[in-house]
Amino acid sequence: MKKNIIIKFVIAIFIFSCNTNKSYKIITFEHIKDIELPIEDTLFNVVYDYQYLKNESGEYLIVYLNNKEIIFYDIKTLKIVKKISLGQNPLLTFEYINDDSIFLFYNPAYNRFYMHDSSLLLINIKGDTIENYSWKGTPVWSWENPHYEKSEVAYSNLLFQKLPYFDNKIFINFDIYQKDYFFDSTYLFNKLPLVGYFNLKSNNFQSLDFYKYPNLDQTIEYPYDFSRIYLSKSKNNELLILFSYTPEFYIYKNTTKNFEKNNLESKLIDSIKIISNKSTDNNKYSYMVYDNENNYYYRFILLSQEEFGKNQYLAVVGDSDFKYVAEGLFPTNNSPKFVNFDNNILTVNYDKTYNNPGKIVFSVYKLKFSDINENQFNEYLPKIKDSISLCKLNYEKKVADRKIENFIESTKFFNDSNYLLIILPMNSCSSCLNIALNFIQMNSKLIFENNCKVLFSGNNSTHIKQLIKKHNLVIFEKNIEIDSAEIYYTYNQFDIINPRILIIENKKIIFDTVYLPDNMNNFQILIKNYVESKY
What we know:
Shape: globular
Radius of gyration: 25 Å
Number of strands: 29
Number of helices: 11
């Protein structure tokens, strides 16, 4: 009896010791250095995509710049060693495999009605076309749905991400087009595939048996971009299917062709107030990437700007089996992108780039892990929240007086009482600018005869006048203004630099919205509706 008591006591001590010695980690980001790369065109310096390359000939940073060219920089000399000019526009992203295999991913237009007109171009380092894979024409999966109606089809969606490439397959996510473009039950619980791949050997599509967005509630009004899907590659070259509104994701098992559900969830995000799903400004999970050198998965979460200030990112780290390891707040308001650059995180520093004409500035951060105990870990999460709150407070102080209403009232670019105003910032997405300008050109007579105004905001008046002339808008100059002093940016409260539409009635703003690449079609629809209402 006494012996049993002693054994139980020893076991209890052992269990207690294990529990109290449980290991926790925190992560911090140490700024290592900035890399300044020269560019020849100092008018615009917009980086759309980049890739780090290390091979037997050296180390390079490959940058896709200004919808014009892909530039190879030597990391040691910081000089341009190779440029590939781009003949098509707009290029969405690229993937360098080797000198004989560089994939270029295209959509001819950021238009929901034509997004299925997409193509993959395979070129070599000389810029020579090796193969052009195209799927233009009929939406690719209208025929797969036995209950297909003409108002509901699936099309390829190449926006916003690199596409996983392995086993001679390019994996692609699909989106649903509906005639009325409402997120009703047909959209949320569709019978069309959400993911598939393009087989480079057979030159055709194959859908995967994946048809539903997970964890949806039919009673909730979701934001327009909730359906964004991120595709990544696992450590075992298996497809990862991720969603912006949930930490839950799926692994496509190559051997069984099944989908295995998994989760890499932030411990902090649940303790932060999440705003209503009815808002488009919500916390958003983004892509996941595997670090082969350190055997970690990294996933970034963009926190709600409305609640936490602009561009606040959390980084969540999981082990090779997706088990939670640590998380931390990214130390800059620049969008992070994990690039295996000597096992560091590389990101474009947009603030420094914008203020340094002729330069692209990249910031390099080292991810550091520290071991702590459970009590320290429980204190660590509130400290992150305090840090977020402080950043938000500083941000709110900065933008408190920067209201678009003040811009309309004080600048008096247009003295009318009632009009529709299109604002085109010159440092915004160049593809969005092209779409806006092409649409305005094609419909210029109707637009300007119905009291629509256009304001170009940029300090290069010569270039803006060239754009006005190029798009045959000179005869409508009385309805066009140039904000050469860039006053608009002073009043642009949240620094959103994409095309913007405001409707003014009795000198008061009654409607105000900004357009992103994936909803530029709504830009056109709104103007058409406004013009038609004036007939």
